[in-house]
């Protein structure tokens, strides 16, 4: 009971700002809710409309492709930087603060900065020109826009996951690694046989939150591409925004939101089944 009282404020906030809106969105997806507040019950018509909407299918494919690019990249960067910080001898706090700094930068500011970096006359193409390459239209080519956006999101957000993994590394007893070193295990063997298995709970947590974050990416796309070029970066969450706040079709927007919720739930459950074995 004492523990419940301590978490009660957060539980109340969760119910008010997460659980209730989710139920409201589920109910709204069964209506043709208008911006004027008028609505009528339409049943599953909005869901049937989704199946006949080629833009929805294209946005779903784009979203899954973006997630497939972003999640492995951010996991590698977060784990790599956490390992380097854990092995650092001097100025650990300084390096940790520098690497975490992009995380506290606004997505809008990060998008504006990286849009300039990706421009034809921007920093990146300027560096490529020095080695007789480019210019490259990172945000103008359909084949490059998703990886370019993923790089921005990784740069912006890896700091949080890095700290989670660093905390996990700090919790691994040094005696385990020292015993393996005495037994002749090299660095890769120690990492694979000791560090990675013991870090698995933290990795699973980071994988889940990064996957959910990837499905919800909006700010970077809105600032940098607006869903372009030729809808190559038009994701589900961007389609939800357009339907709700551009076309004011709130019932259909809520339907997109419920589909996104279902996709994230299914992916998270699959990840849990595949990766959470033996973590307890």
TrEMBL record:
Domain of life the protein comes from: Bacteria
InterPro entries for the chain: ABC_transporter_permease, MetI-like, MetI-like_sf
GO terms, biological process: transmembrane transport
Keywords for this protein: Cell membrane, Membrane, Sugar transport, Transmembrane, Transmembrane helix, Transport
SUPFAM superfamilies: MetI-like (SSF161098)
Membrane topology of this protein: Multi-pass membrane protein
Domain ABC transmembrane type-1 stretches: 60-271
Localization annotation: Cell membrane
Main location (coarse class): membrane
A GO cellular-component term linked to this record: plasma membrane
Annotated transmembrane regions: 64-85, 97-117, 144-167, 198-218, 250-270
Pfam short name (any one): BPD_transp_1
UniProt xrefs under CDD domains: TM_PBP2
Family, as annotated: Belongs to the binding-protein-dependent transport system permease family.
Protein name: Multiple sugar transport system permease protein
